[in-house]
């Protein structure tokens, strides 16, 4: 069995796990931090905005079952790609939307997808999600892992603004 990894930042990592976790070919979805300048940051350090990190998910998947391009498409459907300063109620640099790539092929897949989304006219504002080279990923504290399973009512409350946006923005136009 072949395994590959992908990293996406789309606001609160609690809300990014479930949509990927439910897909065939996904082996794990880990909440964590990436794209900063401090090794092994804590949640409190990342939230302070001083480490440069963003909350992200690291997805381990089988590319024979689900492709990187499919993961990118799932990613878009979880985010507001027009908001560079956070996602939904979560504001600040630690919640910025970023697609991370490992090689030129992934960069081209992500960029082509972004360009296609911009050209679609679905959004009135520019698509501002960044596409950046992969950076070291640090696993978040255990209490953040699989949060939607551990505390369903709190997860539901925190994911409501995202769910409302997704329903309104991503329905067929």
Kindly report how far apart the N and C termini lie.
39 Å
Biggest sheet architecture: 6 strands, mixed
The helical percent reads: 25-40%
Total count of domains: 1
CATH-assigned fold name: Peptide Methionine Sulfoxide Reductase, Chain A
Q: Residue ranges: pLDDT <50 for 5 or more in a row?
A: none
Q: How are the strands of the largest sheet arranged?
A: 7-6-1-3-2-8
Number of strands: 8
Radius of gyration: 15 Å
Under the CATH scheme, which class? Alpha Beta
CATH architecture: 2-Layer Sandwich
- Give the CA-based shape: globular
Strand content: 15-25%
* Separate helix tally: 6
Order of helices and strands: EHEHEHEEEHEEHH
Average pLDDT taken over every residue? 93
Report the structural category: alpha+beta
CATH superfamily: Peptide methionine sulphoxide reductase MsrA
GO molecular function, one term: peptide-methionine (S)-S-oxide reductase activity
Catalytic activity: L-methionyl-[protein] + [thioredoxin]-disulfide + H2O = L-methionyl-(S)-S-oxide-[protein] + [thioredoxin]-dithiol; [thioredoxin]-disulfide + L-methionine + H2O = L-methionine (S)-S-oxide + [thioredoxin]-dithiol
Function: Has an important function as a repair enzyme for proteins that have been inactivated by oxidation. Catalyzes the reversible oxidation-reduction of methionine sulfoxide in proteins to methionine.
Domain Peptide methionine sulphoxide reductase MsrA: 5-156
């Amino acid at each position: 069995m072949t395994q590959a990894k992908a990293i996406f930042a789309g606001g609160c990592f609690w809300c990014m796990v479930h949509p990927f976790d439910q897909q065939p070919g996904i082996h794990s979805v880990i909440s964590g931090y990436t794209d900063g300048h401090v090794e092994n940051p804590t949640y409190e350090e990342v939230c302070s905005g001083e480490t440069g990190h963003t909350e992200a998910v690291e997805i381990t998947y089988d590319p024979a079952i689900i492709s990187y391009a499919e993961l990118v498409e799932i990613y878009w459907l979880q985010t507001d790609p027009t908001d560079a300063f956070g996602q939904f109620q979560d504001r600040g640099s630690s919640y910025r939307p970023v697609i991370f790539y490992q090689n030129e092929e992934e960069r081209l897949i992500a960029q082509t997808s972004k360009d296609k989304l911009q050209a679609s006219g679905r959004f009135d504002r520019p698509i501002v999600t960044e596409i950046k080279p992969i950076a070291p990923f640090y696993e978040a504290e255990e209490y953040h892992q699989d949060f939607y399973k551990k505390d369903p009512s709190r997860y539901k409350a925190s994911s409501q603004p995202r769910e409302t946006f997704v329903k309104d923005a991503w329905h067929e136009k």
